[in-house]
């Protein structure tokens, strides 16, 4: 299957880590937690790939792409972020925190949580890629440091590219399954409600506890962190873009989409900022 062929590939060698202006970011621990947490979640993508490849057994187009491109790019996001974190905060024991994250998170990551149908799982993957594309758009806009802006732009382009692939696979399965808008909408909503629960909490917790030996990361710390993030989200989160990507699999008639968009955007803003 051919997707947008112009999508540029890149590697860690393209990121000018030596040019990072450390003094612009090193003192802000929120950036540390955010980037360390993101590096864990991305680095764990090889596990999701196995789950997805199992689930889409028999669809060589999908499984080839997942293994060859998607997994490689997601894991590279993890490694690129790890290198950024370790350049700015070199005393951080990344490996130890990552191992802690993996053992805490593994019980939540199971193949039988995928589905319930092939089309609906592809729609769910679109939600996840919408989330990451929006997240890195926000990072790019909010970053006080130029190399991080550049890295976020690279990752963001990959996430948008992934979305396009998952969306195309969704359309192929949907042509067979013919799920109603209502059903797709319900699945998407379920997935939105799940996003950034367990994994971001556990990622932050493990980054925090390794960075601050002897201290415990509590749910209250998480709430306080989320509250501080609220200011960035309010200023930099691309709500319009996220909503358009999110609604695409439902294929609402244009008029309805125009009417629903501002309402949903307000709802999403409230949900994220609550
Ligand atoms: Fe990613
Ligand atoms: Fe992605």
Automatic annotation (TrEMBL):
Question: Which superkingdom?
Answer: Bacteria
The protein's name is: Ferritin-like domain-containing protein
Gene3D superfamilies with a match to the protein in the record: Ribonucleotide Reductase, subunit A
- Please list the GO terms describing molecular function: oxidoreductase activity
């Amino acid at each position: 299957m051919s997707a947008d062929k112009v999508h540029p590939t890149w590697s860690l060698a393209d990121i000018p880590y030596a040019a990072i202006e450390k003094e612009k970011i090193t003192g802000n621990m929120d950036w540390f937690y955010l980037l360390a947490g993101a590096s864990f979640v991305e680095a764990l993508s090889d596990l999701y790939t196995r789950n997805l490849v199992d689930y889409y057994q028999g669809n060589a187009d999908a499984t080839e792409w997942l293994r060859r491109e998607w997994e490689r790019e997601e894991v590279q996001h993890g490694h690129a972020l790890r290198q950024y974190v370790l350049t700015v905060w070199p005393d951080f024991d990344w490996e130890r925190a990552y191992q802690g994250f993996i053992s805490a998170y593994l019980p939540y990551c199971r193949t039988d949580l995928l589905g319930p149908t092939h089309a609906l799982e592809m729609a769910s993957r679109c939600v996840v890629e919408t989330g990451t594309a929006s997240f890195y758009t926000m990072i790019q806009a909010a970053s006080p440091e130029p190399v991080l802006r550049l890295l976020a732009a690279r990752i963001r382009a990959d996430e948008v590219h992934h979305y396009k692939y998952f969306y195309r696979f969704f359309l192929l399965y949907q042509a067979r399954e013919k799920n109603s808008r209502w059903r797709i909408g319900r699945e998407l909503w379920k997935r939105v409600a799940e996003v950034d629960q367990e994994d971001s909490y556990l990622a932050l917790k493990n980054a925090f506890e390794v960075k601050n030996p002897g201290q415990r990361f509590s749910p209250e710390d998480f709430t306080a962190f989320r509250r501080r993030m609220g200011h960035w989200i309010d200023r930099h989160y691309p709500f319009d873009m996220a909503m358009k990507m999110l609604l695409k699999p439902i294929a609402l008639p244009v008029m309805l989409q125009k009417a629903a968009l501002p309402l949903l955007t307000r709802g999403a803003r409230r949900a994220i900022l609550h």
